[in-house]
Write a structure and sequence with these properties.
By secondary structure, the protein is of the alpha/beta class. The chain has 3 domains: 2-74, Rossmann fold; 83-286, Mur-like, catalytic domain (UDP-N-acetylmuramoyl-L-alanine:D-glutamate ligase, 3-Layer(aba) Sandwich); 297-441, Alpha-Beta Complex (Protein-Tyrosine Phosphatase, Chain A), CATH 3.90.190. It has 14 helices and 20 strands. The chain has helices at 2-10, 26-32, 65-73, 80-87, 102-115, 186-198, 213-220, 259-274, 279-286, 315-328, 370-375, 383-390, 401-411, 431-441, and strands at residues 53-56, 76-79, 92-97, 121-123, 135-136, 143-148, 152-154, 157-160, 169-172, 205-209, 227-231, 236-239, 242-247, 250-254, 297-302, 305-310, 333-339, 363-367, 396-398, 416-421. The strands form 5 sheets. A 7-stranded mixed sheet has the order 5-4-6-3-9-10-11, with helices on both faces. α1 packs parallel to α2.
C-alpha cells in the first residue's frame, strides 16, 4: 500500500492516507515522500466529497470509520488489486502466480526488462535490486508485470487478489497448500488457481511448471480458450559454491542457486520471450541478477562461513530453500533455523505439512513466540507437537529468542552455512548484527 501511494504521487496525483500503525521501511519511505500521516488512527473527517477514489488496504476492517464515511458519500472504493487492474486496463498485464517462487520470478522478469531498456509498470512483493519502489504506474508504458498473490483483496472483496487482474500472459510456478486461515481445505485452496485461469481472457497465454503433478492436472481441465505452455527445470551445473546454466553449449555463471531457482529462471525466460526478449538478451541480463529481497539473501561471508536469510515460511518453501543450500554447499555444515510466524504455520492442524522439510540440515532449530500465537487467537502448540510434526532427528525447539541465539552462536563455526528462514524477525533479531557477530567469531 505504501509503495502504491508513492507511485501515485510520482504519477502526479494528490495522495493522502491513514493507518493505525506504520513500521519501517514503510514509515521511512512515506516520510521521505511527504506522505506520512501527521497522526495515526482513523479520521472520518479526512474523507471528503472531492476525493476521486479510496483504495482499501487488505487488513482494514469492515467497520473502519473512514471506509464507512467513503461508502456514505458514494466515493468509489477500490481494493489494491482492483485499482491496479483499473490503472492498466489498456495494457498487457503479466501476472506471476504460484504458492512459491512468484516473488523471485517477478523480480527476474523486472530485472531482465529493465536491463534491456524496456519501460513497464510493475508491482512486486519484495525489494528488487535497482528498483527504488515496488510499484510503478506510468502513462507511457504498454506492459504491466504483477506478482499474483492468492490472499484476499480486502474486507469487502473476499476474492483472492490474483482473480482481479485478468492477465493476458500468466505463469503458475506450483501449488502447495497455504493460508489455512482463509482456505481451510486443500480443495478450497487449489480451486483458487482454477478460478485464476478461468479469469484469463480468450487467447491468453498460460505458462505452468509441468513438474507439479497437481498443477498439471488442474491446467488440463480448465479454460480451453487459453493457450497453455508447460516448462520444466533446465539443465544446470553446480560446483562447490557456484551454479551455472547451460545456454548454447556454454555455461552462464549465476549469482543465484538451487533447483527451485533454476526452475524459476526457466519460467522467467519464457515470460520474457513472450514480451520480445531474445534468449541472448535474457541470459546476458540474468547472470547479473542477485535475487529478490529476503530470498536466499546473503547477509555475509567470511572464509568458509556464510549467513543467508530467506522469507521461507510455508512447508514447500522451507523444503526447497533447505535443499537449495544443501546442494550449493554440499561440503559445508548446514545449520537451519525456522520461525513459525504465520497463521498457517502456527496452526496445529497444519503442522504435519512440515514433515521432513528440514531433513537435509545438519543441525536444525524451530522457533515460535507464544505471544504471537495468543495475538493471532490460535490454540497454543507445544514443543513436543512441533518436534513430532517436523520429524527431524536432533531438532531443537525454542520459544525464547535468547535461547535461540545461544544455539546459533554455539552451532555456527568455520565451514558452516547458517540459514535463517522467517516471514518475521524471530521476535526482533537484528539480522545484520547477528551475521557480523558470527563472521567475526569465525
Amino acid at each position: 500500500m505504501h509503495s502504491l501511494a508513492i507511485a501515485l504521487k510520482q504519477k502526479g496525483n494528490v495522495v493522502t492516507g491513514s493507518d493505525d500503525e506504520i513500521f519501517d521501511p514503510a514509515r521511512r519511505h512515506l516520510l521521505q515522500e511527504g506522505l506520512l500521516p501527521e497522526a495515526f488512527g482513523w479520521f472520518p473527517g479526512r474523507i471528503t466529497p472531492d476525493i476521486d477514489a479510496v483504495i482499501l488496504g487488505m487488513h482494514a476492517h469492515k467497520d473502519n470509520p473512514e471506509l464507512s464515511r467513503a461508502l456514505e458519500l458514494g466515493i468509489r472504493v477500490y481494493s489494491y488489486p482492483e485499482f491496479l487492474h483499473h490503472e492498466t486496463i489498456e495494457k498487457t498485464r503479466v501476472v506471476i502466480a504460484g504458492s512459491h517462487g512468484k516473488t523471485t520470478i517477478t523480480a527476474m522478469v523486472m530485472h531482465v526488462l529493465r536491463y534491456n531498456g524496456y519501460a513497464f509498470d510493475y508491482m512486486a512483493g519484495s525489494g528488487v535490486e535497482g528498483f527504488d519502489n515496488m510499484v510503478s504506474l506510468s502513462a507511457d508504458t504498454r506492459i504491466a508485470v504483477f506478482e499474483g498473490d492468492e490472499y484476499l483483496a480486502s474486507c469487502i472483496d473476499r476474492r483472492p487478489k490474483f482473480h482481479l487482474y485478468q492477465p493476458q500472459l500468466a505463469l503458475i510456478s506450483g501449488i502447495a497448500w497455504d493460508h489455512i486461515n482463509v482456505f481451510p481445505t486443500w480443495e478450497g485452496y487449489i480451486d483458487q488457481f482454477r478460478i485464476f485461469v478461468e479469469t484469463m481472457p480468450p487467447g491468453g497465454h498460460l505458462l505452468y511448471c509441468a513438474e507439479d503433478q497437481e498443477l498439471r492436472k488442474l491446467v488440463a481441465n480448465v479454460n480451453p480458450r487459453v493457450i497453455k505452455e508447460p516448462y520444466v527445470t533446465p539443465v544446470y551445473e553446480t560446483g562447490e559454491g557456484t551454479t551455472g546454466i547451460i545456454h548454447q553449449g556454454r555455461i552462464v555463471p549465476l549469482k543465484i542457486f538451487g533447483r527451485h531457482n533454476m526452475q524459476n529462471l526457466e519460467g522467467a525466460r519464457l515470460i520474457c520471450g513472450h514480451l520480445g526478449i531474445t534468449d541472448d538478451q535474457f541470459f546476458g541480463a540474468i547472470q547479473h541478477f542477485s535475487g529478490a529481497g529476503k530470498r536466499l539473501q546473503l547477509l555475509g561471508k567470511q572464509g568458509g562461513t556464510s549467513v543467508y536469510l530467506d522469507f521461507a515460511h510455508s512447508p514447500s518453501k522451507v523444503r526447497a530453500t533447505v535443499d537449495a543450500v544443501r546442494e550449493q554447499f554440499s561440503g559445508h555444515r548446514l545449520v537451519a533455523c525456522l520461525e513459525l510466524h504465520t497463521f498457517s504455520s502456527l496452526n496445529r492442524l497444519f503442522l504435519d505439512q512440515y514433515g521432513n522439510s528440514l531433513e537435509f540440515a545438519d543441525r536444525a532449530a524451530v522457533f515460535y513466540n507464544p505471544q504471537t500465537i495468543a495475538h493471532k487467537r490460535l490454540e497454543m502448540i507445544s514443543r513436543e507437537e512441533v518436534m513430532q510434526a517436523f520429524a527431524k532427528e536432533g531438532l531443537q525447539v525454542f520459544t525464547s529468542k535468547d535461547d535461540l541465539l545461544s544455539f546459533i552462536y554455539a552451532e555456527t563455526g568455520d565451514n558452516t552455512v547458517l540459514l535463517l528462514m522467517s516471514s518475521g524477525t524471530f521476535s526482533g533479531i537484528d539480522f545484520a548484527e547477528l551475521s557480523d557477530n558470527i563472521l567475526r567469531k569465525n
